[in-house]
Amino acid sequence: MSESIKKITLFAFLFTLCHFAGAQTDAETEIRAILDRQAACWTAGDLECFMDSYWKSDSLKFVGQSGITYGWQKTFDNYVKNYPDREAMGTLTFDVVDAEQTGPESFFVLGKWHLDREESEDVGGHFTLLWHYIDGQWVIVTDHSS
């Protein structure tokens, strides 16, 4: 192999590697911003805004204490039932422990959630989120929160 072909091959490899690393950083930044927006929506008492980051599909999966819920609407309805007012909702914070791009259109996020509530006991736990890039936006397709 000629020296110039080796250089071109090396350049192409490095360019591809740098491009993928940049895309991962951009995706993670975008997903972290979505989580910040989710926390702000929750804290404002706006469950519909909070749910904007979930895939609006019957194939959405939410795994919680009661088992698996399928679908955006059923997940939303469960949130409304379990958090009927601002006091029950409290102030939501997320702490991302690990975020990893698993493919060009998928991302895995592991973290902690906490609800600070004035009138009742604070609650918190852990979450695992699987995100997919669908129709030009990152959305949660699977949420396991405990």
Describe what you observe in this structure.
With 146 residues, this protein is α+β, with helices and mostly antiparallel strands. The protein has helices at 3-43, 47-51, 72-82, 86-89, and strands at 61-64, 67-70, 91-103, 106-116, 123-134, 137-145.
Radius of gyration equals 19 Å
* DSSP, total strands: 6
**Strand order of the main beta sheet, please?**
2-1-6-5-4-3
Biggest pleated-sheet summary: 6 strands, mixed
User: Tell me, what's the shape?
Assistant: globular
Summarize the helix and strand pattern as letters.
HHEEHHEEEE
Query: In percent, how much strand structure appears in the residues?
Result: 35-45%
How many distinct helices? 4
Distance between the termini: 56 Å
Average pLDDT score: 88
Considering DSSP H and I runs of 4 or more, what fraction of the residues is helical? Answer: 40-55%
Quaternary structure classification: single chain
Query: Which stretches are low in confidence, meaning pLDDT under 50 for 5 or more residues running?
Result: 5-24
**Class per helix and strand makeup:** alpha+beta
